[in-house]
């Protein structure tokens, strides 16, 4: 269940900001460091932030213990998701109509710091933090989100890791389940004098639910270790704390971009073809974050110094060698009966051997190294103009990030259902570097007048980017770009009563182009509007928002994960004509109390989205094609509903969570491979139950997708893939 | 902490207001690009060469005549195949003798060879309508290297029975490898009346007499030949019709054309010329030679030659080379060699002109079939491959670089 609250900063503005988070329902509260990190507080009164924000607390996350961010976010209104691997290893998340592809149009943060591998230079989030270690999730959409750039058209997602506990405590959590699922999680932390400490480690694994032709592991193993240390430097007049976070994570997953044909999905939805038997993602991520906070009731400033390193090897089928006969994987799987495709299909499935040169299978290693580093600071000042209170929030971020590609390809023969190297040399494909230096500033002023809170704000993004082809002899293949943009926003909240309020806001949205992309490709730019109301009385909460995003142009990029049909347009970006997204978001929750010791919490979330192009245009982007005015945007369900209900006693609880996702278009216009193709609507129900044996020990049971409902959730990157089938899991927790 | 001073509100408000005003200025951007950016490493050339004249000449005097010739050949082929089949029926009815059948059969085969000669030049000119829908029209005419003789056997029987899975037989709905010039070659040149299927066989084929089988095959051959003729008409219409692809090429750079520039249109023609690399060199020579994987396990493999039944592989290669030469030199008008000379790369122009001439002469000199040469004189075939490779090596490097053209997407993964 999810708690919907308003955004922080009270307001208003929508614009701006790098990292400042707050819980400033009133201007004179004394903030502390964790409020700045966690962004949204969870108190029981009506929140007066203008803008749609949602927080999912640790208590709520614990109910279902999801390892998959997709499953967590299904209960948040205004979120659109394209599932891919079933585990959420590489999620595709969009807000309010933004293309979900690799979550590249939203700003993803961990503890208030950009966490994408290279958020400016390569925004596709091939690295995503491990959901299992998060104790809070915060979602900002529309005007509430622009504080957290660079991507401001859709929203921001902040994942909050465990705080250092104020008293000594620890936990061991062991779980096992179907498909070889296993989880081992533990943490220990506390305070000794002015020194706080925390160490947390998680191991997560599964054998996978896909069934590889000829057998084989389709699962994954993930590890994550995090250490936090802080030191309290506070005096009588100033709260001050210094905190260090160091983390390491890795993943080894037998994942693939290769799906299956619709017919094969109908017969065996979890089948995986033999040609994907060598596919593997192998990455390592390390993180360093030093945070300093100082403040009192009038003024506070939070400063963060950060560095993230990410290195991956992503070895997977790219397609057939071609030459004499050329067929894209997407083409083959869309029409396997075609007599040109039939032989390729037989090879993919291991029914035929590769005989001709063009029938060799090309596996590519998209090896990449990234870093993302910077320093950011934001400050709050609470003051007054006579009797008029106001709050000023300002900040900056200097950020650098880089991606270095060392892509290679190798040729394999399918022989007796096994991929055998053909002995030829590895071929280098992409060898380049993209990097960005970015300075972001924001300024926001909130005025408190009568029952109104007015906020004006502006965000500035100034960045210089560089693309350099690093292949030998290609020194002259480079591009240097400078972009400067100011993004204004304004919002207002009107408190009608202690339990009811109304809000509205307008802001300008922006998504930069990559360093490599031609200057002829425009940034994505939009004007976003929203108006809403919020109610909070006792255990009853409600928020309803109507939004309208008016895009001058959309920008998309061609990637392996988007479609194999990119051909030589890999990583190329495309502009569309104008587009608009209209939507309604509704979230309500209430807890019914019975005469006995049982409570019944319920929550309902509904999202309506109507997204379409406002002009006709032709595009080579494989999700668009020949678009006519009024054509829908891809991967946006018109209706989404999530309903949760629970029974909670003193020592036990049972929860059920159902979500309905409407049909989605796989492409917008005509003339592209998946034109006119839709995913079907899907209803999935998850169950969880837990029992507290004593104050230290809890056991729990989970069933994901209890009715084992499976549909094609996407036909990208190559071919159909379904959602995760039914999965059981039992667990044991020991707390001390 | 030191006491924080309360500022006056006016300063703050002015700061915000100023920032908002600045926002009204929106976005600004600037860039600096390296000479190699966006050109695949090739800097644009500065030239006064008349690309419009090149497009017009190649379109009107090289490509269109080839398509017209194929259309004429396809129509003639349909007539000859029909006449041959009437003879097969007469033979089955004992109205004529085998000897009387022979000239009709030879004429039908010759008509196929003639059509293939023009088509093999057209293979080098695949653009626009021949590439649309994943090359459906091209494949309907000639699907090689995708061949499926067993599927042809099935369609012979489907056609004979008049239906496919309960639906009336309609050749226009059949997949390319079941029809076109590949199927027609099989139907006209294959003397083996058993089916080519590794397992199973269509319908009542095994119950038919040899005479009935010959009639069944020739009657389907008539249907196929007529379909090829129809496809050739379609090609000509889409190519040379009002606002057809030829007109689009010739008006490149104008508002009415799909090509933003003449150079872009020229690049589409150069894309087509890469057929010589991927198909002629790699598919028709390197593969049967065993330089590439083939069905004999990467050794000389007569089974993998093009047109194995008609044994016309060298003729096909020769016509590929002739088609390439026409585009390269322009024959009696401006060609790519003139473009190369204009931009100062006379060496490449002359080298390619000489190399293609050498390749043509050497292929003409063969007195055996390719399948025979692979066994009897593989060194000669290796030399032929080298002759063609010398042309394509220049095509992929100096030709493209000097003219600032882009490699076709399918050529990105170099097979050499």
Automatic annotation (TrEMBL), chain A:
What region holds the TonB-dependent receptor plug domain? 46-156
Location, primary (coarse class): membrane
**Signal peptide region:** 1-22
- Membrane topology note: Multi-pass membrane protein
A single GO BP: siderophore-iron import into cell
**Pfam families named in the record:** Plug, TonB_dep_Rec_b-barrel
- Origin, by domain of life? Bacteria
Q: InterPro entries given for it?
A: Beta-barrel_TonB, Beta-barrel_TonB_sf, Plug_dom, Plug_dom_sf, TonB-dep_rcpt-like
Specify the TonB-dependent receptor-like beta-barrel domain's residue ranges.
Answer: 272-706
Q: Which UniProt keywords apply?
A: Cell outer membrane, Membrane, Receptor, Signal, TonB box, Transmembrane, Transmembrane beta strand, Transport
Where is it located? Answer: Cell outer membrane
Report the GO terms under cellular component: cell outer membrane
Q: Hey, which family's this protein in?
A: Belongs to the TonB-dependent receptor family.
- According to UniProt, the name of this protein is TonB-dependent receptor
- What is the species listed in this Swiss-Prot or TrEMBL entry? Alteromonas confluentis
Q: What is the lineage of its organism?
A: Bacteria, Pseudomonadati, Pseudomonadota, Gammaproteobacteria, Alteromonadales
TrEMBL record, chain B:
Keywords from the named record:
Signal
Per the record, the major location class is other
- Protein location: Cell envelope
The taxonomy runs: Bacteria, Pseudomonadati, Pseudomonadota, Gammaproteobacteria, Alteromonadales
Write down any Gene Ontology CC term. Answer: cell envelope
> Please, which domain of life does this record's source organism belong to?
Bacteria
Domain Imelysin-like spans what residues? 64-393
InterPro entries linked: Imelysin-like (IPR018976), Imelysin-like_IPPA (IPR034984), Imelysin_sf (IPR038352)
Q: What is this protein called?
A: Imelysin-like domain-containing protein
Q: Does the keyword Ion transport apply?
A: no
Q: Which Pfam families match?
A: Peptidase_M75
């Amino acid at each position: 269940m999810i708690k919907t609250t308003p955004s922080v900063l009270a307001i208003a503005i929508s614009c701006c900001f790098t990292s400042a988070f707050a819980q400033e329902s009133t201007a004179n509260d004394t903030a502390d460091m964790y409020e700045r990190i966690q962004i949204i507080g969870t108190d029981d009164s009506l929140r007066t932030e203008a803008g749609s924000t949602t927080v999912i607390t640790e208590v709520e996350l614990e109910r279902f213990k999801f390892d998959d961010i997709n499953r967590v976010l299904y209960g948040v209104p205004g979120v659109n998701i394209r599932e891919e691997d079933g585990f959420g290893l590489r999620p595709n998340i969009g807000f309010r109509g933004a293309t979900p592809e690799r979550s590249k149009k939203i700003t993803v943060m961990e503890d208030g710091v950009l966490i994408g591998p290279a958020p400016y230079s390569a925004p596709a989030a091939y690295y995503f933090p491990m959901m299992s270690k998060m104790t809070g999730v915060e979602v900002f959409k529309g005007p509430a989100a622009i504080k957290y750039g660079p991507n401001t058209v859709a929203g921001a997602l902040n994942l909050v890791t465990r705080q250092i506990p104020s008293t000594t405590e620890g936990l061991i959590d062991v779980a096992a389940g179907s498909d070889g699922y296993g989880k081992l999680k533990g943490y220990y932390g506390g305070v000794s004098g002015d020194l706080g400490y925390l160490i947390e480690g998680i191991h997560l694994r599964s054998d996978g639910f896909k069934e590889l032709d000829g057998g084989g592991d389709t699962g994954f193993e993930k590890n994550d270790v995090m250490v936090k240390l802080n030191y309290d430097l506070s005096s009588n007049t100033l709260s001050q704390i210094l905190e260090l976070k160091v983390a390491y994570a890795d993943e080894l997953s037998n994942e693939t971009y290769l799906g299956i044909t619709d017919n094969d999905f109908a017969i065996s939805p979890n089948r995986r073809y033999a040609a994907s038997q060598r596919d593997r993602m192998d990455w390592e991520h390390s993180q360093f974050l030093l945070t300093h906070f100082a403040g009192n009731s009038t003024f506070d400033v939070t400063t963060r110094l950060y560095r993230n390193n990410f290195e991956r090897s992503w070895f997977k089928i790219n397609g057939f060698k071609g030459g004499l006969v050329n067929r894209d994987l997407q083409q083959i799987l869309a029409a396997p009966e075609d007599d040109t495709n039939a032989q390729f299909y037989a090879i993919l499935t291991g029914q035929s051997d590769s005989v001709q040169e063009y029938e060799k299978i090309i596996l590519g290693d998209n090896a990449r190294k990234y870093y993302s580093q910077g320093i950011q600071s934001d400050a709050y000042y609470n003051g007054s103009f006579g009797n008029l209170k106001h709050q000023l929030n300002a900040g900056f971020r200097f950020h650098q990030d880089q991606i270095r590609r060392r892509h290679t390809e190798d040729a394999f023969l399918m022989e007796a259902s096994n991929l055998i190297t053909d002995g030829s040399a590895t071929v280098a494909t992409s060898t380049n570097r993209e990097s960005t230096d970015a300075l972001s500033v924001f300024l926001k002023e909130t005025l408190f007048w009568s029952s109104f809170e007015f906020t004006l704000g502006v965000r500035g993004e100034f960045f210089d980017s560089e693309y350099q082809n690093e292949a030998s002899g290609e020194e002259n293949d480079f591009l240097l770009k400078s972009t400067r943009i100011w993004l204004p926003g304004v919002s207002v909240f009107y408190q009608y009563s202690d339990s009811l309020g109304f809000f509205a806001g307008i802001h300008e949205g922006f998504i930069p182009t990559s360093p490599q992309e031609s200057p002829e490709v425009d940034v994505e730019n939009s004007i976003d509007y929203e108006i809403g109301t919020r109610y909070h009385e006792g255990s009853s909460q409600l928020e309803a928002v109507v939004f309208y995003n008016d895009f001058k142009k959309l920008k998309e990029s061609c990637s392996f994960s988007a479609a194999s049909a990119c051909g030589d347009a890999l990583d190329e970006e495309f502009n569309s004509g104008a587009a608009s997204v209209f939507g309604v978001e509704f979230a309500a929750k209430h807890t019914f109390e019975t005469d006995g010791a049982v409570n019944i919490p319920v929550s309902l979330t509904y999202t309506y989205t109507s997204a379409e192009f406002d002009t006709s245009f032709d595009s080579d982007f494989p999700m668009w094609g020949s678009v006519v005015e009024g054509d829908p945007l891809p991967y946006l369900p018109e209706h989404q509903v999530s309903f949760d209900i629970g029974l909670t006693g003193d020592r036990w609880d049972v929860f059920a969570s159902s979500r309905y996702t409407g049909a989605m278009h796989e492409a917008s216009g005509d003339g592209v491979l998946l034109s006119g193709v839709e995913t079907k609507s899907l209803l999935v129900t998850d169950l969880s139950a837990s029992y507290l044996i004593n104050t230290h020990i809890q056991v729990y049971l989970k069933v994901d997708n209890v009715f084992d409902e499976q549909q094609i959730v996407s036909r990208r990157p190559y071919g159909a893939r379904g959602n995760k089938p039914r999965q059981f899991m039992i667990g044991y927790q020991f707390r001390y | 902490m030191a006491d924080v001073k309360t500022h006056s509100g006016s300063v703050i408000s002015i700061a915000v207001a100023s920032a908002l005003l600045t926002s009204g200025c929106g976005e600004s951007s600037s860039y600096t690009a390296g000479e190699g950016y966006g050109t695949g490493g090739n800097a644009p050339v500065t030239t006064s060469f008349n690309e419009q004249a090149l497009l017009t000449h190649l379109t009107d005097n090289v490509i269109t005549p080839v398509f017209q010739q194929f259309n004429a050949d396809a129509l003639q082929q349909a007539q000859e195949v029909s006449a041959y089949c009437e003879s097969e029926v007469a033979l089955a009815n004992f109205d004529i003798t085998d000897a009387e059948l022979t000239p009709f059969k030879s004429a039908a085969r010759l008509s196929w060879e003639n059509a293939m000669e023009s088509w093999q030049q057209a293979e080098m000119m695949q653009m626009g309508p021949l590439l649309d829908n994943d090359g459906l029209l091209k494949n309907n005419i000639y699907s090689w290297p995708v061949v499926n003789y067993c599927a042809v056997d099935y369609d012979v029987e489907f056609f004979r029975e008049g239906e496919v899975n309960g639906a009336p037989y309609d050749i226009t709905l059949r997949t390319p490898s079941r029809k076109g010039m590949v199927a027609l070659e099989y139907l006209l040149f294959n003397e083996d009346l058993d089916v080519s299927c590794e397992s199973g066989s269509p319908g009542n084929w095994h119950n038919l007499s040899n005479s009935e089988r010959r009639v069944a095959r020739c009657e389907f051959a008539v249907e196929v030949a007529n379909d090829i003729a129809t496809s050739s008409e379609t090609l000509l219409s889409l190519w040379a019709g009002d606002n057809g692809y030829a007109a689009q090429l010739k008006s490149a750079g104008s508002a009415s054309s799909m090509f933003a520039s003449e150079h872009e249109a020229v690049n589409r023609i150069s894309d087509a010329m890469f057929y010589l690399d991927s198909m002629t060199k790699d598919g028709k020579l390197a593969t049967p030679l065993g330089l590439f994987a083939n069905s004999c396990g990467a050794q000389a493999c007569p089974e993998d030659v093009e047109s194995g039944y008609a044994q016309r592989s060298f003729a096909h290669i020769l016509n590929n080379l002739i088609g390439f030469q026409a585009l390269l030199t322009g024959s009696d008008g401006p060609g790519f060699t003139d473009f190369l000379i204009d931009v100062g790369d006379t060496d490449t122009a002359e080298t390619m002109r000489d190399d293609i001439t050498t390749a043509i002469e050497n292929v003409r000199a063969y007195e055996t079939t390719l399948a025979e040469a692979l066994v009897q004189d593989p060194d000669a075939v290796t030399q032929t491959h080298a002759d063609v490779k010398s042309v394509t090596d220049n095509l992929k490097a100096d030709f493209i670089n000097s003219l600032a053209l882009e490699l076709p997407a399918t050529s990105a993964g170099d097979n050499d």
